[in-house]
Amino acid sequence: MSIGLDAIAFHTTKYYVDLEDLADARGVAREKFTKGLGQKKMAIATPLEDTVHLAVNAGRKALSRFGISPGDIGTLVVGTETGVDHSKPVAVYVHQALGLSSDCITYETKHACFGATAALSSAGDWLVSGRARGRKALVIAADIACYGIHTPGEPTQGAGAVAMIVSDRPRLLEFIPDINYSFTKNVMDFWRPLYSKEAIADGHYSVQCYLQALASCLAGAAGMLPDTSRLAACLYHAPFTKMAAKAHLLYYGWCHNTTIERETSAYRHFFEDYQTRTKPWLTLNQEVGNIYTGSLFLSVIDLLRQKRLLPGQLISLFSYGSGCAASITCSKLASDYARWQTHLDPAEDLSARIRLSVHQYEKMKAETAGLSSDFRLNPSDYGMNGHYLYLGNKGHVRQYSDLNQSIRGEEVHYG
Ligand code: CAA
After folding, report:
1. DSSP assignment, residue 111?
2. Which of 95, 237, 248, 343 is catalytic?
């Protein structure tokens, strides 16, 4: 049985901040953010665009664009580290909004940026177990990356959701379960205490933890994992795109059994390899910023939409979640994957976004931080009229627009 990705879709916020504007406002060289971190823009969520909003909208696109009926979904998992409640999962709001059936297993997973990778693994196991009975699993990675103003993490914010439908007849990517190694270790590199809306990061240590986790996965997967030369693409969790370059340097060096120093001919060979196998698929990450659980899968969308690779070619995927958990695996491009390019390309949505000044962004951040238990948001104050917007709380109950409008009846355009 072949298990893999049958559909994928992305949703992000209406507004963004340009990182050159942020660098100017923070008094640092623009190249630090654009070259040193490798980022261009970061998506900024209004208070109306909470995790539920992002997840619902990505889920709607995945179902409608790939012609999948809500009744075909037997498992729904939302991987997030931006939950909206200690108890009630984001997934149950999504379940209602998408009109999924009452016998659909529905829950939330958390392990920092690793949550959706864990969910994909469980979805695959559910399909193999025989309990799916012809149905598919919907896994949504949805997050709002939020660091304090003036902190080193500030230029690595972002927001968005990637919805993925896993089936036993995948039209996009086939998972290769024989190539898989996982790693876990309790470290304090990045976390968000229950009392804080912003993440706390020991930034340079977190980069080390990421690379140590990758090194452990490479060592553990020795004998299973192909050399980079046999892979058409090497994708990595990308909190900022330079992190993927650091990761590829490690993988490339591991394949050649050496540590590669800068300004050497080995480094030049690595750089060519990086330009071919990793860099081409980082353009969406540069435009959106860190979306935590969904960052790796943003690169997957970028790869699928560019249609540069051939069916059957192999790609590696490295997932890292702070705290920390990691895994490395491979997938194969499905025979007809290129046919779906226009259905999954978010280019139009991205070009319709609106640029915020740094002052407007700081004001929006302060407003979101100041929201208390019961309040009412007015979408027109934010120039918003999107689907399933978060309108505030009434009697401690979250309120959304279009609460009773499910996906049924939406135009299906596929084939
Ligand atoms: N021109 C070009 N490059 C410049 C430059 C300039 N004028 N000035 C600085 N740079 C380069 C630096 O040399 C450095 O590059 P290298 O890493 O290749 O040496 C890069 O820009 C960044 O500079 P600093 O290291 O001085 O930056 P910083 O200390 O202000 O912050 C950071 C960097 C620690 C990553 C910070 O952004 C951060 O804390 N981010 C949040 C945590 C994070 O994303 N960690 C990643 C691993 S954990 C993970 O992956 C989970 C997750 O999603 C959070």
Report:
1. B
2. 237
124: its two tokens: 């695959």
- Neighbouring C-beta atoms of residue 179, cutoff 10 Å: 18
| Mean pLDDT along residues 233-255 | 97
Q: DSSP string of 268-323?
A: HHHHHHHHHHTGGG-HHHHHHB--GGGHHHHHHHHHHHH--SPTT-EEEEEEEETT
Sheet with 397-400, strands from edge to edge, namely 375-376, 390-394, 397-400
Q: What's the pLDDT tens digit per position in 119-165?
A: 999 999 999 999 999 999 999 999 999 999 999 999 999 999 999 99
Model pTM above 0.90: yes
Which DSSP category does 32 fall into? I
Q: What tens digit of pLDDT does each residue of 284-312 get? A: 999 999 999 999 999 999 999 999 999 99
Contact yes or no for 287/313 (Cβ under 8 A):
no
Q: Which amino acid is at 37?
A: L
281-284 own/partner pairs: CB under 8 Å, 24+ apart: 281/233, 281/235, 281/306, 282/38, 282/238, 282/241, 282/244, 284/10, 284/346, 284/350
d(Cα 249, Cα 277) in Å, to the nearest integer?
Answer: 11
Provide residues with CB under 6 Å of ligand 1.
29, 31-32, 35-37, 113, 152-153, 156, 189-190, 201, 203-204, 206-207, 210, 237, 239, 242-243, 290, 292, 320, 322
Task: Please state the φ and ψ torsions of residue 41, each to the nearest 5 degrees.
Answer: -140, 165
The answer to which of 23-32, 181-190, 260-269 has the lowest mean pLDDT is 260-269
The C-alpha atoms of residue 175 and residue 158 are separated, in whole angstroms, by 28
CA gyration radius for the chain?
Answer: 20
Query: How far is the C-alpha of 164 from the C-alpha of 298, rounded, in Å?
Result: 11
DSSP letters, 200-258, are: EE-HHHHHHHHHHHHHHHHHHTTTTSPPGGG-SEEEE--SSHHHHHHHHHHHHHHHTTS
**Which of 159, 114, 117, 192 has its CA nearest to residue 290?**
159
Nearest to 45 by CA among 284, 409, 386, 310: 386
Q: Please state, for a pLDDT cut of 70, what percent of the chain lies above it.
A: 97
User: Of ligand 1's atoms, which has the minimum distance to the CA of residue 33?
Assistant: 21
